């Protein structure tokens, strides 16, 4: 009569050992991956804010507008498209941008994305 258990294969202790190692590696790696993603989103968001602010400064310094009496930063970010920006970038996270026309600055609703 044939045995139900084959001689080849892994023992329960071997399988549990491998499982524990995999769980430990996952516990170490997953938080680092999540942290790296958030750090990358924050850096990209800050870069987006800088690009918008540079475009606002260029808009404000445009000499042809000064000649017709328009000075200062644009009244809406949409005025920057397409001459100064191809499009208004979005926050790579879940945030949204707030534009301060008086200062020509942009801030993100995600506090960790602000300078
Ligand atoms: Zn953001």
Describe this structure in words.
A hairpin with a 4-residue loop joins strand 1 (97-100) and strand 2 (105-108). The protein is rod-shaped. The protein is mainly alpha-helical and 115 residues long. Strands 1-2 form a two-stranded antiparallel ribbon. The termini are far apart. The chain has helices at 12-60, 63-67; strands spanning 97-100, 105-108. The longest helix is centred in the first third of the chain and has 49 residues, at 12-60. Helix content is 47%, strand content 7%. It has one domain (27-113). It contains two helices and two strands; from the N terminus they run ααββ. Residues 45, 91, 93, 95, 108, 110, 113 line the site of zinc ion.
Query: What small molecules are bound in this structure?
Result: zinc ion
Report the span from N to C terminus.
75 Å
Helical amount:
40-55%
Mean pLDDT: 88
Give, in order, the helices and strands. Answer: HHEE
What is the total tally of β strands? 2
**Looking across the biggest beta sheet, what order are the strands in?**
1-2
Contiguous low-pLDDT stretches (5 residues minimum) are none
Largest sheet: 2 strands, antiparallel
Number of helices: 2
Strand content: 5-15%
Rg (CA only) = 27 Å
CA-based shape: rod-shaped
Class by alpha and beta content: mainly alpha
Number of domains: 1
Blueprint of the fold:
Elements: H1 12-60, H2 63-67, E1 97-100, E2 105-108
Antiparallel strand pairs: 1-2
The site of zinc ion has 7 residues, from loops.
Structural descriptors:
115 residues, mainly alpha, 7% strand, 47% helix, two-stranded antiparallel ribbon, rod-shaped, binds zinc ion, 2 helices
